[in-house]
Amino acid sequence: MEITPKEQMERIYAALSEKQGQDISVIDIRQVSDLADYFLITHGNNTPHVDALVDAVEETMGKLGVPCRSREGLRGGRWVLLDYGDVVVNVFSKEDRMWYDLERIWRDGTRVNPGQKDADP
User: Fold this and answer.
1) Could you tell me the residue range of the domain that residue 103 belongs to?
2) Is residue 47 domain-resident?
3) Which distant-in-sequence residues (6+ apart) come within 8 Å of 63 by Cβ?
4) Residue 119 lies in a domain
């Protein structure tokens, strides 16, 4: 059974929430880019927290059988990007998140509230 991009996003959101990801943003970028369907952005409070958030996403997607196409960044709590094709996850340190301000860059996308019922196909 294939899992949809929306289901992937919701599962990742849940994993990040469970590990206390800070200020989790979900942006639907389907109308503004062919890069992916969803961007998830969060930050951790310290290096071990960032690493735990990344581990939670990798474990969740591994259990779903969705391979990571690309992993950028280093362990060490600054910024890790996980590209699952339809869903891209950015896990930052708080300082780096503020510096790069991806929410501003992707402001033309639509903010999503996971779990909210919508007319998404």
Assistant:
1) 5-111
2) yes
3) none
4) no
Q: Is residue 14 part of a domain?
A: yes
Tens digits of residue pLDDT in 66-84 = 999 999 986 666 899 999 9
In whole angstroms, give the CA distance from residue 73 to residue 90: 10
78-103 per-position pLDDT tens digit: 899 999 999 999 999 999 999 999 99
CA distances from 63 to 19, 38, 71, 72 (A): 17, 20, 17, 21
Strand-pair partners of 81: 72, 90
Token pair for residue 67?
């391979």
DSSP result, 7-28? HHHHHHHHHHHHTT-EEEEEEE
